[in-house]
């Protein structure tokens, strides 16, 4: 019996030694996965909705030390963005424009006239937003009745903006659809 008990104790000891090894491997896997995700996402900038920015654009206030760009079709852009002069927008989807208070207001009228977009205002969803670099520095301003473009912060103070979307943000409800289905559906 002693021989059987010794064998069981030996097997248990081997099993106990494997458990920490599996735990360490699992921990290393998640650390590497987290590092990979953080490393890939670290170049992304972000937006923060802002009523103040909406009002600035809508009043035609031209922000000094910023370059203005429109995205989408030239006759009816989907969005306008103001990027600080310290940064360079690198994207084939955006065109630099010179603005005055009057031309800025005219652009916003074209951007803002979208069937169903007026319901966004009733739901207190601001059209303006502040654009931030990954480190939290504000690098620009955004205005659109549509959802945000993807933005990536590149080396050397360069910024990439994807094509501005032409769909309303999630949870904006457009009356007239069967049972008031949220748009996009």
Structure description:
- The chain is an alpha+beta fold and 185 residues long.
- It folds into two domains: 1-42; 46-176, no CATH class.
- It is built from four helices and eleven strands, in the order H-E-H-E-E-E-E-H-H-E-E-E-E-E-E.
- The strands form three sheets. The chain has a six-stranded antiparallel β-sheet with strand order 1-6-7-3-2-5. The protein has a three-stranded mixed β-sheet with strand order 4-9-8, with no helix packed on it.
- Strand 8 (151-154) and strand 9 form a beta hairpin.
- The N and C termini lie far apart (71 Å).
Biggest sheet details: 6 strands, antiparallel
Cα Rg: 26 Å
User: Largest sheet, order of strands side by side?
Assistant: 1-6-7-3-2-5
Listing every helix as H and every strand as E from the N terminus to the C terminus, the arrangement reads HEHEEEEHHEEEEEE
- Could you say which overall geometry the principal axes of the C-alpha atoms support? elongated
Q: For the residues shown, what is the average pLDDT? A: 72
Are there runs of 5+ residues with pLDDT below 50, and where? 31-42, 172-185
What's this entry about, in short?
With 185 residues, the chain is α+β, with helices and mostly antiparallel strands. The protein has helices at residues 2-41, 51-58, 101-112, 118-122, and strands at 46-49, 66-71, 79-84, 88-89, 94-97, 128-132, 138-143, 151-154, 158-161, 172-173, 182-183. The protein contains 4 helices and 11 strands.
Write the layout of secondary structure elements.
Blueprint: H1 2-41, E1 46-49, H2 51-58, E2 66-71, E3 79-84, E4 88-89, E5 94-97, H3 101-112, H4 118-122, E6 128-132, E7 138-143, E8 151-154, E9 158-161, E10 172-173, E11 182-183
Parallel strand pairs: 4-9
Antiparallel strand pairs: 1-6, 2-3, 2-5, 3-7, 6-7, 8-9, 10-11
